[in-house]
Amino acid sequence: MSRKAIGPSGAVMVFLDFFREIREKEDEEVKRKTVRKIAAVIALLCLGAVVLTGCGGSSSGSGSGTDGDGISIYVGETIFDSSLDPVKGAFSYGYPVINNALTKVTPESTYTGDLALDWEVSSDALTYTFHLREGVTFHDGSDFTAEDVVFTYNTVKENQGGNDSVDLSRMASVEATDDHTVLFTLTEPYSSFLDQTACLGIVPSDGYDSRTFDTMPIGTGPWKVIQYDTAQKMILGANEDYYGGAPSIEQVTILDMEEDAAIASARSGELDLAMVSPNYVNEEIDGMHIENLETMDVRQISLPVTPQESYRTESGDTVTVGNDVTSDRAVREALSIGIDRQTIIDNALNGIGKPAEGFTDNLEWGNTASYEDNRKDEARALLETAGWEEGKDDIYEKDGLRCEFTVYAPSGDTARYQLAQAVAEEAEKIGIKIDVDQATWDELDTEAFTSGVVWGWGQYDPVVLRNLFYSGAFTGTGTANTVRYSNAEADRLIEAALDANSREASVEAWKQVQSVTANDYAYLYIVNIEHSYFVSDDLDISVDTQIPHPHGHGAPVINNMNQWTLK
């Protein structure tokens, strides 16, 4: 990529403007965003200074100014929002960056050994035995042993409230039977425990410090933290002693900035990779191309399946639940078969993504009930058979009830709001009126009980199906089974999946859960989104070894960063 010098005087003036803005504004969200803008300007100034002092990369291009051996990238704000400590939930996507876990996710969405070579599960599904790799060292040179695993898991167990990315609630104990063998004992069968082992990076038992690891964690992974400036940048250096082989790129600088600043930086040649929303994918940037990467991330609208009524929670609170329109199965099915998903994707997401009727088949346990959509005449006939009649404005009515309900998108999430609007346009063509609104996440905790909500789901752990379909999951609080779905056969299969003593058995049960719930249309699946990145023509991000990205845009692209190469 070509390099362009950044005019420091103009950037300094922008910096001063932003500084005045943060002093004048009282709103905390404005302050947070302004700080990010200031950080972006500082980062650009630093990059410009690198160019002006003659320390830029080679003509083959890289944005970090390390003689062609480093790159600069923007992957969103996700990894800057919290601690870098895996004990507190950092990098819990199921792949190694700074800290390795016992297992990791493959490009086929299965699990393979990482720090563990292999493992066994007892016939009663209560004990898991992991056999560890030998000869692995931490970044500080200390040896990795079973004691480090025991320490990490016990520390998280004792501070479970500080890590909501890993569920160790059913772990009774963990012990090292020798230097390279770890035995976990559970309080009850829980097949999802294997999923947890891919989400928790291991820290050194002797070198761990809670405060230090927030910004300078020590792990066994392919990358070491060289520098971390909160809300500004993170500099990672290649681990020459990584057990899987040292990365070929010596240094990666990850910048924290607003998306528009990232686009500007990419245009000026100062970024080698930039995450972008679908609205930008048709832009042209010299020396860069778009990569739309596969995900398991599904956008769906929850549709309450019971009529409206009052519900008393265990704490004695009374909440309103259910919806008299969406509780009619004919309405839910008419939406599912009547909307044109590709049109919705084209209108809301610039055509980026794939139509979805369920969880994606790139998940080992996915079992999508595929069917043809855009069957508007059939959808109308279905409603009329169920007793709905067209009203004066072409919206159906039944017994004085108008076929109308509200769908919420989270405040500030433009993509989900646009999806809801596009769905509403399609729904109106079949005589169903959807009112689109926005609410904060706190507000959605209750609005979801009576209205549709545009959710994003996408993870390797199939326990998400329990949250969506298990009748006992609904408690009148939180986001589990907000539609109040109830199916005895689904409950039985979910329990069988959780109690299974092999991955194969649990996967088969989870697939059956999707089969028996598909025809109830409790969720309106819309799109399997894709994650888009502008990538330098001189950078190969090894698309073939990318894992299908889980929910959350940005950080997942670095799952295989140790395999990236500069041409």
Please give the structural blueprint.
Layout: H1 8-24, H2 28-52, E1 70-74, E2 103-105, E3 111-113, E4 116-121, E5 127-132, H3 146-158, E6 171-178, E7 181-186, H4 193-196, E8 223-229, E9 233-238, E10 251-255, H5 259-267, E11 273-276, E12 288-293, E13 298-302, E14 309-312, E15 318-321, H6 329-338, H7 341-349, E16 354-355, H8 376-385, E17 389-390, E18 396-398, E19 401-402, E20 404-410, H9 414-428, E21 433-439, H10 441-447, E22 452-457, H11 464-469, H12 488-499, H13 503-517, E23 523-528, E24 531-536, E25 539-540, E26 565-566
Parallel strand pairs: 1-10, 1-11, 20-21, 20-22
Antiparallel strand pairs: 2-3, 4-5, 5-7, 6-7, 8-9, 9-10, 11-24, 12-24, 13-22, 13-23, 14-15, 16-23, 17-18, 18-19, 25-26
Attribute tags:
7-stranded mixed beta sheet; 6-stranded mixed beta sheet; 567 residues; alpha+beta
Number of helices: 13
Cα-atom Rg, whole angstroms? Answer: 25 Å
Structural category: alpha+beta
Mean pLDDT: 88
How would you describe this protein?
- This protein is α+β, with helices and mostly antiparallel strands and 567 residues long.
- The protein has helices at residues 8-24, 28-52, 146-158, 193-196, 259-267, 329-338, 341-349, 376-385, 414-428, 441-447, 464-469, 488-499, 503-517; strands at residues 70-74, 103-105, 111-113, 116-121, 127-132, 171-178, 181-186, 223-229, 233-238, 251-255, 273-276, 288-293, 298-302, 309-312, 318-321, 354-355, 389-390, 396-398, 401-402, 404-410, 433-439, 452-457, 523-528, 531-536, 539-540, 565-566.
- It has a 7-stranded mixed β-sheet with strand order 8-9-10-1-11-24-12. Strands 16-23-13-22-20-21 form a 6-stranded mixed β-sheet.
- Helix 1 packs antiparallel against helix 2 (28-52), helix 6 (329-338) packs antiparallel against helix 8 (376-385) and helix 7 (341-349) packs antiparallel against helix 9.
- The longest helix is centred in the first third of the chain and has 25 residues, at 28-52.
- Mean pLDDT is 88; it is low at 1-62.
